[in-house]
Design a protein that fits this description.
The structure is a single chain. The protein is an alpha+beta fold and 920 residues long. It folds into three domains: 239 residues; 323 residues, 4-Layer Sandwich (Nitrilase/N-carbamoyl-D-aminoacid amidohydrolase); 136 residues, Leucine-rich Repeat Variant. Helices cover 53% and strands 11% of the residues. Strands 1, 2, 3, 4, 5, 14, 15 and 16 form an eight-stranded mixed beta sheet that branches. It has a six-stranded mixed beta sheet with strand order 6-7-8-11-12-13, covered by helices on one side. Strands 9-10 form a two-stranded antiparallel sheet. Helix 23 runs parallel beside helix 25, helix 23 packs parallel to helix 40 and helix 27 packs antiparallel against helix 28. The radius of gyration is 34 Å and the shape is elongated.
């Protein structure tokens, strides 16, 4: 008996597993798409009328759950809970499909028809409570079979799935007939003829539609797609907005030089809100206005530039703060005359829980629960608002190479997977084609893993592009994709992903454009054909879905009435009270499971292809006056472009000290500066921040004409993983050039490698080592934690010369021990203001605010008044640096005053304090 049960279990398990395996490999980039035509055959055969419903349901659910968990693995790094709940919900569709197939087989419904209707209906039901999850359809496996997929302009992607499912159903029916040794019936013959005719007709139709291209397709303008390669972990912090912008601007300029008339940037890579009504309320130096101005200047007399950014509706409060009453994921178009188009596209199809919390008002307790258990990607209400208009952008204005004006629409992120979005763009109210192509901007950085310098893209990138192919065929519209991390490409109106391009630096083969940055320019083709699908939509899918729903209701109704019949009257008597209690208990359990499943359905898809504007807006407010952060940003920006090399050096040191990675593209460019100290500081900053993007640029400095720059480049290379370059610094410590020797000691201290201590001691004792180099060695030893230097530093701290005392105090601060702290406290009583301020700064580094009073005295007692200009500048710089380490509210309120100081060096020091206090 046990063996019989095991055999029956295996007769269900093995076919279900076989189908799951085939459905997995047909969507993988390994060339096994033809298996789609037989992938459901084992599944259909296993759904025999003799198979128990419970067995089909349980095994179908478990294997389906494993299938979805495995194939949606790329969701897990974003939200494990969301991944689990969505898979738990979606896995219910396989048991439903199995029971429906079993019913159809029991009623002798032809399987070629039953399989096609049920499979397409179940595909359409994926994520139906949340607007649909249009992913991993049978059709999507055939995206490279260009002839086959042309029927999508009539039936949509569902038509291709329907055809493949018909073939699966027919093969299953024939196999069952052979196994049962039944004669070939008239119904089976008719089914074979119908399926074969459908397949042949599909290919004939495909050839005909492709052949029409010569008459219906014309050449459009050259357009550029930019592809960034930014991990979501970097983007969501909103700390790299300037770096992202600078990088894409370089690509955009290159694309413009290559002749692009339209340049497309990826989704929200401009990390700003660009609505004019908001920008005019902000200071001109605000980063959002800086981005807007740069884009206007770039577009003027160059090209139309489409960028993904944030949108919003402002409201000015009584306290003059700007509150964003609406927040959108948006696309903006900058025109060739330097203006920004008045039209804005706000994303219409938001991802539930990833971009919007739909229950935060109607079901507040549920929303609060999500917040508490950290179910959502953020710990705040980050919801965006839904857009409502299918905006059409226009490329107008005279162009020598342009024969007419053009119109296009934008789909943001996963909107290109939703058939309804594309078709609503395609036609006007009279059913006429109203645009020339579509653009898809997306951020797939959620689904790429970055480890050191290695980029590991998931299958989501290729599958996303494959799904987008069907939007092109359905509406006969070319689609230009610009996607963070890839795949950026041009899909023509026949669904071909175009390889090659007019100009660019991405791989020629589109499928290889994953996990990299780059750009390309290609000429868009314009198809004048309107389609049945654009007019009538997913009529086939909805018909199939309706059939599935009706069949499920029939199955549940039949079971309900059978159960009710058996509840009462056994041999003419009412069932016992215990029997009714047992039945009620059973019903309660079923009800509990049902509620749990409803909860799962509501909470699915807890991820988005783009983070909300809240991560960008902080606390939903931006001030109408320039904030200290904005001023600090502008000060450092100006200093990096200053003609004074010392200003550049100071700015670079601020960037490295406060880890302002957003400035690093500019720092990287300063590796080529004409001044040696600037190149030295830039290389040092790249090493300190481990900015791997600049590794190639730094490596070129290893052949610099100045040895000091070479050792700084060696330090950077070592911090970036090539530790063998630290040996270059050790050798430089024995240089006869005392400046090189000092810098080598300084860099060895920064490496944190204690194995260099003996070498440092040896060189310090060398009679040929200058006093300056000896002190630098002492500082390096202190940085490495060598407490033996304390006695010598103590002597310097009590030197008769204030400058020596300041140097000694800073070195002791690097040592950071309790004894060092005790020595520092004694210097708060020094008779020189600069010494006291330096002491307060170093104590602040050690998290000791005892020096706060000394810094406050500068403002309360006006201690800098009466000092000469140079002394006043030094005192104010030291004051700012001390504030940056102590960061008490009483001190921070004085930073705006220092940010406006007449000395650029004081302003730079104040900017450092602003960044440091923000970090704390």
């Amino acid at each position: 008996m046990k063996n019989v049960r095991m055999k029956k279990n295996l007769l269900v398990i093995l076919p279900f597993v076989g189908t799951a395996v085939m459905l997995t490999v047909i969507q993988a980039p390994i060339g096994l798409a033809p298996l789609a035509w037989v992938s459901f055959v084992p599944f259909i055969i296993a759904c025999s009328p003799k198979a128990r419903a419970r067995r089909l349901f349980i095994f179908g659910y478990v294997i389906s759950l494993c299938y979805w968990l495995g194939n949606l693995y790329w969701v897990a790094p974003v939200t494990i809970v969301g991944w689990l709940l969505f898979c738990l919900y979606t896995a219910l569709l396989w048991p439903a499909l199995a029971l429906c197939l079993r019913f159809c087989r029991k009623k002798n419904v032809p399987l070629f028809l039953a399989a096609a209707v049920l499979i397409v209906g179940v595909e359409r039901m994926q994520g139906f409570l949340l607007g649909g999850f249009f992913w991993r359809f049978l059709a999507h496996s055939q995206y490279q079979n260009v002839t086959l997929i042309q029927i999508a302009d009539i039936f949509g992607a569902g038509g291709v799935s329907f055809l493949i499912a018909m073939v699966n159903g027919l093969l299953a029916e024939l196999i069952v007939a052979v196994h049962q040794k039944k004669n070939f019936t008239l119904v089976q013959f008719a089914g074979t003829v119908i399926v074969c005719a459908a397949v042949v007709g599909t290919f004939v139709y495909g050839w005909w539609r492709i052949d029409q291209e010569a008459e219906c397709v014309t050449e459009g303008p050259p357009a550029a797609s930019l592809q960034s390669n930014v991990p979501q972990s970097v983007k969501r912090t909103f700390e790299s907005g300037d770096e992202l912008f600078a990088s894409l601007m370089e690509q955009s300029k290159a694309a413009a030089q290559a002749g692009a008339e339209l340049i497309v940037w990826p989704e929200t890579m401009v990390q700003a809100t660009l609505n004019p009504e908001i920008l005019k309320l902000l200071d001109s130096s605000h980063s959002w206005n800086v981005f807007d101005k740069a884009l206007r200047e770039h577009a003027k007399d160059t090209a139309f530039v489409l960028v993904g950014a944030y949108g919003g509706t402002p409201k000015i409060e009584d306290n003059f703060e700007i509150h964003l009453t609406q927040r959108f994921n948006s696309a903006f178009l900058y025109k060739r005359n330097g203006d920004k188009a008045k039209e804005v596209y706000n994303k219409i199809h938001l991802v539930p829980f990833g971009e919007v919390l739909p229950l935060r008002k109607s079901l507040s307790w549920f929303y609060e629960l999500l917040m508490k258990v950290k179910f959502i990607p953020y710990n705040f209400d980050y919801s965006l608002d839904y857009g409502s208009e299918y905006t059409i952008f226009e490329m107008t204005g005279a162009e020598e190479s342009r024969t007419r004006d053009y119109k296009f629409g934008v789909m943001i992120c996963y909107e290109d997977t939703v058939p309804a979005i594309g078709r609503r763009f395609a036609l006007d109210e009279q059913g006429r084609k109203r645009l020339d192509w579509l653009v898809n901007i997306s951020n797939d950085g959620w689904f790429v893993r970055f480890e050191d310098e290695e980029v590991m893209p998931s299958v989501e990138l290729a599958q996303h592009a494959a799904v987008c192919v069907f939007r092109a065929v359905e509406n006969r519209l070319a689609i230009l994709r610009s996607v963070n991390t890839g795949i950026s490409c041009l899909i023509d109106s026949a669904g071909r992903i175009r390889n090659g391009f007019i100009a660019g630096d991405l791989p020629v083969d589109a499928k290889n454009r994953t996990g990299m940055a780059g750009w390309f320019v290609e000429r868009i083709q314009i198809d004048n054909r309107a389609t049945i699908f654009s007019k009538y939509g997913e009529w086939l899918d909805f018909c199939c879905e309706t059939c599935v729903v009706i069949l499920i209701i029939v199955l549940l109704s039949g079971r309900f009435f059978r159960t009710k019949k058996n509840l009462f009257i056994r041999d003419g008597q009412m069932a016992s009270k215990s029997t009714k209690n047992k039945t009620q208990k059973h019903k309660n359990i079923v009800a509990s499971i049902t509620y749990a499943l409803l909860f799962a359905c509501l909470a699915v898809f807890v991820f988005g292809c783009e983070e909300s504007s809240q991560s960008m807006l902080g606390d939903f407010y931006v001030t109408n006056v320039t904030s200290p952060e904005t001023e600090a940003f502008q000060i450092i920006q100006n200093a990096l472009a200053d003609t004074n090399p010392l200003a550049k050096v100071n700015a670079i040191e601020v960037i490295a000290t406060t880890r302002q990675v957003k400035f690093m593209p500019q720092v990287q460019r300063l590796l080529q500066d004409e001044f040696t100290p600037v190149r030295f500081a830039a290389a040092l900053a790249i090493g300190d921040l481990e900015y791997s993007s600049a590794k190639n640029s730094v490596s070129r400095l290893l052949k610099d004409e100045d040895v000091n720059v070479i050792i700084a480049a060696s330090y950077a290379m070592g911090r970036l993983g090539s530790t063998e370059y630290f040996e270059v610094i050790r050798k430089a410590l024995n240089s006869n050039d005392q400046t090189v020797k000092s810098n080598a000691a300084f860099l060895l201290g920064k490496t944190g490698d204690n194995s260099s201590l003996n070498l440092l001691k040896s060189v310090q004792e060398d009679k040929n080592t200058s006093d300056k180099a000896r002190f630098q060695i002492l500082e390096a030893r202190a940085r490495l934690g060598d407490e033996e230097v304390l006695q010598k530093l103590w002597a310097i701290v009590y030197s008769a010369f204030a400058d020596d005392r300041i140097l000694g105090i800073r070195a002791i601060g690097l040592l950071g021990t309790s004894k060092a702290r005790d020595i520092l406290v004694t210097k708060l009583d020094d008779n020189v203001l600069e010494v006291r301020l330096t002491t307060a700064e170093q104590l602040g580094k050690l998290n000791d605010r005892i020096g706060e009073a000394e810094v406050l005295d500068v403002f309360e007692k006006n201690l800098t008044i009466g000092l000469d200009k140079e002394a006043s500048e030094r005192a104010n710089m030291l004051t700012a640096l001390a504030i940056g380490q102590i960061c008490s509210p009483a001190l921070e309120k004085n930073l705006p005053q220092l940010l406006k100081n007449e000395s650029k060096f004081v302003r730079i020091a104040a900017a450092q304090a602003v960044f440091q206090c923000k970090m704390k």
